[in-house]
Design goal:
This protein is of the alpha+beta class. It contains 21 helices and 25 strands.
């Protein structure tokens, strides 16, 4: 008897080997040994998707010329897969081991793609129906978790249904991408607008949402806000009162004044009667554990990290066995994880240097159930928490790994620290039948909030009386029915435009991809999107953002602010009225995924629907194409974009200099570059151990010095203070930054 364990990646396979006691070398992706599963256990790894959908030219020579849009649409009668030469050796090894096996345990990642990777390998090898196949779900890669994983094997049925959904999605995305990208790129090239105009269900929809956000800023018109406020005095303390009387817009000014007159509130002072007074002690329990988006957001809050930096570190901590599976949209955890966190409470505190600072708290069972997955859902994604493997003081990890681990540990321990407790004081006054309210909260016990890390940026001072340690108990000084003098004031404020969109608002929890349902008018489809948490998953949302940057549809500046490029605006304009960029399409696909998962449909149904949509889109584009209008729109948007992002003129060729983000190396080579592709002028953002800001670049391009940088690290290892200036090196004929000393 032989059992083969199929892992998704080599690092994952080696962790399985460690957990099961199979000896291996540092880079081995295949190893054999005796385990509790089988005396002959083989662990072998894929390397992600070994098989890829074939390119269009595979289906006919007429598709080799990507500029030939007359041959569209491309509609394969059958989808074929290609095994790249680089994957042949690895695939052959896997096939050989599976052919000899009696049992195959699919141990790829828990998401649909993990299932699809295994399904395609087994199908391509002809072993899909020849072997006994089981499923194990990796939640963490420390030894205890690996053993637990393989002692709780599941039937493969659900994984295969998930795989069919993933395969249907990938083939449908192929039809959209291969046909419509060629269509738009070719038609635009024919009118002199050159570029790679990629179209895809996910990136086109996200681009649409971003454009809608920017359009709301462009179209924003300031409006006045009319609001009645007041002040009263209690025991020598001035109390601010807010009323329910608030109207927005110049058109409501007359109505606002009429309401004041009707209630006799036009004078500066009136008498108000105390109608409500209460003091209530309240407590709050912590939010559920981190999702991937939550952890991105938290690392940005506490350390200012980018999404790319967080992504790399959370994967590393998972690979090293310190944290649970990172690509999760769920925050609940299984009971066994809660139990080991509770048991190891003091050890986790010690690991982050907080020995004895907190006492363990036993959460009531009725409250605890909010944090735990249901027994029937133990194949779901779980929240990110530390594993049983404690990160020791002498463990060989980076500072980044240690910082994220501390953040994750602190979050996990919030479940085991008593609730945050505060008292809420409220005072309600009726001024001529208009309610006016004063409220303040006073902290009684910070509880679990005390263990959370502070923000990198100091928060603005809380409003007077809000969350103070003392608060103000109105009931000590006034009683219901008492009459108090109220000084009235009409506050006239202004509506504020939406703030510029930042990249973290795309993919984090509560971001526009998750909240895409708000952009869907159809209530049924909006409900589907809300239930499935919007467009994409934690594993794919950041990829959508990176793809938009790579396709040059958006740029992201040094402050993380997104700007839509002329290419982005043009592509979004061309897709107006198309189902491709409408969030409703994703909702329809999610509905079909569910039908596939329930066995009520198959992948062909979704593919056929997509094919019809592609035919319809090609017909629509050809019918509505207006060359002159398109060129005018593109040139107008290009002029706006150039003015918006330009930091100054290139000293070499006179073109605009803009910030370019390095998405491949986590920002290592972020730079300010000339927009002229033939010009190599560059100022790298990182100068030794210091960052050059956009404000400094503007000065440099204007021939001025930057602000004074302190503690610049020299090659000798010493530090110095200096301003920087841009000077031309006569030997190399290139511009370089040079320090200027006082």
């Amino acid at each position: 008897m032989t059992t083969v364990i199929l892992a998704e990646k080599p690092d994952q396979a080696r962790k399985y080997m460690d957990g099961l006691g199979i000896k291996h070398t540092a880079k081995q992706h295949l190893a054999k040994g005796s385990t509790f599963l089988d005396p002959n256990t083989v662990v072998v790894s894929a390397a992600g998707h070994l098989l890829e959908l074939c390119e269009p030219e595979h289906y006919g020579k007429q598709y080799e010329d990507r500029d030939n849009i007359e041959v569209l649409p491309i509609m394969p009668s059958r989808f074929d897969y290609d095994l790249p030469k680089s994957n042949v050796g690895l695939y052959s090894e896997i096939k050989r081991e599976i052919e000899k096996a009696n049992t195959v345990i699919v141990s790829t990642d828990m998401d649909n793609e993990g299932g699809a990777i295994a399904f395609n390998i087994l199908r391509f090898s002809g072993m899909l129906k020849q072997k006994k196949i089981l499923r194990s779900y990796p939640t963490a890669l420390n030894k205890q978790a690996v053993v637990r994983q393989f002692k709780n094997l599941k039937p493969i049925d659900k994984t295969w249904r998930d795989a069919h959904a993933a395969i249907a999605r990938s083939r449908s995305d192929w039809l959209i991408g291969m046909n419509l990208s060629r269509l738009y790129t070719g038609k635009l090239k024919n009118i002199g607008i050159i570029g790679n105009y990629a179209v895809g269900r996910s990136i086109s929809t996200v681009l649409n949402l971003i454009c809608q956000w920017e359009k709301s800023i462009e179209d924003f018109k300031e409006e006045p806000i009319y609001e009645l406020t007041g002040k009263t005095n209690i025991n020598g303390k001035e109390i601010d009162l807010k009323s329910t009387l608030r109207m927005v817009g110049e058109k409501n000014k007359t109505k606002f004044i009429s309401t004041l007159k009707a209630h006799g509130l036009t004078s500066k002072r009136v008498n108000g009667t105390v109608a409500l007074i209460d003091t209530i002690v309240k407590e709050t329990f912590p939010p559920i554990m981190f999702t991937k988006g939550d952890l991105y957001k938290e690392m940005n809050r506490v350390a200012g990290w980018t999404q790319a930096r967080s992504k790399n570190v959370m994967q590393k901590n998972y690979d090293d066995g310190y944290q649970t599976y990172p690509r999760t949209d769920a925050g609940e955890i299984p009971r066994h994880q809660y139990e080991y966190l509770k048991e190891g409470f003091d050890n986790y505190l010690h690991a982050i240097g907080l020995d004895g600072k907190f006492q363990r708290y036993e959460m009531p069972e009725d409250k605890l159930k909010k944090y735990l997955v249901k027994e029937s859902a133990d194949d779901a994604h779980y929240g990110i928490v530390p594993t049983e493997k404690i990160m020791g003081e002498n463990d060989d990890v980076t500072d980044d790994q240690r910082l994220m681990y501390e953040v994750v540990v602190r979050k996990a321990l919030t479940m085991l620290i008593k609730p945050y407790q505060y008292v809420s004081n409220r005072l309600g006054i009726k001024a001529n039948d208009i309610p006016m309210i004063a409220q303040n909260n006073a902290v009684l016990d910070p509880g679990w909030k005390a263990i959370l890390m502070p923000s990198k940026k100091k928060s603005k001072t809380s409003k007077k009386g809000d969350n103070s340690k003392e608060g103000f108990d109105y009931s000590k000084y006034v009683s219901k029915g008492q009459v108090l003098p109220v000084a009235l004031k009409i506050d006239v404020g202004k509506t504020q435009p939406p703030k510029p969109l930042k990249s973290i608002q795309i993919y984090d929890k509560g971001g526009i991809m998750e909240k895409a349902y708000k952009y869907v008018e159809n209530k049924e489809y909006a409900a589907i999107l809300k239930k499935t948490k919007g467009i994409g998953t934690s594993a794919t949302r950041d990829q959508a953002l990176a793809s938009l940057i790579a396709k040059k549809y958006i740029t992201v500046d040094t402050k993380d602010v997104i700007t839509v490029t002329a290419n982005g605006w043009l592509m979004n304009k061309l897709l107006e009225g198309s189902e491709v960029s409408d969030p409703t399409l994703t909702a329809k696909w999610e509905e079909e995924y569910k039908r596939i998962d329930e066995g009520k449909s198959n992948s062909n149904a979704l593919i056929q629907q997509t094919a019809k949509m592609v035919y319809s889109e090609i017909k629509r584009v050809n019918a509505e194409w207006n060359t002159q209008e398109i060129i005018q729109y593109y040139e107008s948007r290009k002029k706006e974009f150039d003015q918006k992002v330009s930091l100054g003129k290139c000293p070499v060729c006179g073109s605009d200099v803009i910030f370019t983000k390095d998405t491949k190396n986590s920002g290592k080579w972020d730079a300010y570059r000339c927009r002229n592709k033939d010009c190599k002028f560059t100022i790298f953002k990182h100068f030794s151990n210091r960052n050059i800001s956009e404000a400094d670049v503007k000065k440099l391009l204007d021939g001025k010095t930057t602000h004074k940088f302190k503690n610049i690290l020299a090659k000798s290892g010493k530090h110095y203070d200096a301003k920087l200036i841009l000077e031309k090196d006569d030997k190399t004929n290139q511009y370089k930054l040079k320090p200027v000393f006082d």
